[in-house]
Design goal:
Mean pLDDT: 94
Shape: globular
Order of helices and strands: EEHEHEEHEEHHEHEHHHH
Distance between the termini: 48 Å
Structural class: alpha/beta
Largest sheet: 6 strands, mixed
Length: 262
């Protein structure tokens, strides 16, 4: 299978490894609606590709992703229709992570903000660089946890730390992420070519059926709850988009951005 026609992602197959990079460096690898569509596409296509065992998400440059591109909503004349369509696109993207049969690996090469942090919780394995921090500023924007994080982060971090992170806007350093099992390794940037990528290629050569069936068994215990969380989160997000807190947060963001250009 050829992974062609991607605009917001760099997608390259390396043997049994499929490398997917967020590729919007001018905007700190921010994610827009097209990115979500392409993420859904690649995670759906790879399910039918018997030549790939492991999918790796990482970012171009020294940042994983700064999360949603908050300027998108200013480019539409029908804001309600925009939010409904965006919500459906987002929900489908999360489902594509949940339903991906292959091993999905987050190689977090720098700051991971918003959905950049929560998709790490959807991946099967997560490693991060020493320069990484995770931040989920949802309440600052008048929003709620997304990407299945209302279920996955309490499961991974514990309820107290998850609440600090998701609701009180406390970031997770690389050290914190390792301590609370959000990632399983922290690496030095200098180790990427010498150790990290060779190790990932080694993992991708493990027996295919054993990998896929093992992943299926591991996810059986929590997949149903994760699907329910995604459903509930997306319903609430749609309500939050119509709340005055969100509109105020967007206006404040636009004001800060305008002042920064002066």
């Amino acid at each position: 299978m050829s992974y062609q026609g991607y605009q917001q992602l760099l997608v390259e197959q390396q043997g049994k490894l499929l490398v997917v990079k967020f590729n919007n460096p001018k905007k700190k690898n921010c994610i827009n609606r097209l990115t979500y569509l392409e993420m859904t596409r690649v995670l759906t296509e790879v399910n039918d590709d018997e030549s790939v065992n492991l999918v790796v998400f990482t970012g171009v440059g020294d940042i994983f992703t700064a999360g949603n591109d908050l300027t998108q909503s200013a480019k539409t004349d029908d804001i309600d229709a925009f939010f409904k369509q965006s919500n459906a696109t987002f929900k489908a993207m999360v489902l594509s992570f949940v339903n991906c049969k292959k091993i999905v690996f987050a190689l977090v090469n720098g700051p991971a903000i918003g959905i950049g942090a929560t998709i790490v919780g959807l991946c099967d394995v997560a490693w991060c660089s020493e320069t990484t921090y995770f931040s989920t500023p949802f309440t600052k924007l008048g929003l709620v946890p997304e990407g299945g994080s209302s279920y996955m982060l309490p499961l991974i971090l514990g309820r107290s730390k998850a609440t600090e992170t998701l609701l009180l806007n406390e970031p997770l350093s690389a050290k914190d992420a390792l301590q609370f099992n959000f990632v399983s390794r922290v690496f030095k940037p200098s180790e990427l070519d010498t150790w990290i990528w060779p190790k990932l290629r080694q993992y991708s050569e493990l027996p295919t059926n054993s990998l896929l069936q093992g992943k299926r068994l591991i996810k059986e215990g929590f997949k149903e709850n994760l699907l329910k969380a995604n459903e509930s989160e997306c319903k609430q997000l749609l309500l939050q988009f119509q709340h005055e807190e969100f509109f105020q947060a967007i206006m404040d963001f636009a004001s800060r951005k305008s002042k920064s250009k002066l």
